[in-house]
Amino acid sequence: EVLTLLVLMSPLLRGLALHLHSAVTGSYIPGTHSIAFVNCLNEQIAKDIARAIMDKKLAAYVNILPKSSALYFWKGELEESTEILLLVKTRTSKIGELCNYVRSIHPFEIPEIISLPIEQGNPLYLKWIEENVPRD
Prior knowledge:
- 42% of the residues lie in helices and 31% in strands.
- With 136 residues, the chain is of the alpha+beta class.
- InterPro entries: Ion_tolerance_CutA, N-reg_PII-like_a/b, N-reg_PII/ATP_PRibTrfase_C.
């Protein structure tokens, strides 16, 4: 009882317990993987950035979504443009490295690079992401 209470109270111990439980049962820990969104000016830039991400093994899969309209404020003015959106599937532990790398190669002054954790999904697909993105 005391051990259970300690595990629940300590975030570090709770995290270790979750990882141990996952390893033993094969269940997915919500948030282990993420989807990052990266906006690009055009299809060629999107393909170049997607390939660079894949070459660095920072993702298992990148979707390149077709042109969409965008409205945003830039330097106090409302702007309207079109852009291509990348959906990058990776380990959550790689998001910092992914963000830094994309910023270093992206032509935008402030590129959109945001991520959301994957809570659940096809266990085989989530395992496949894990197998194709090396650990830190």
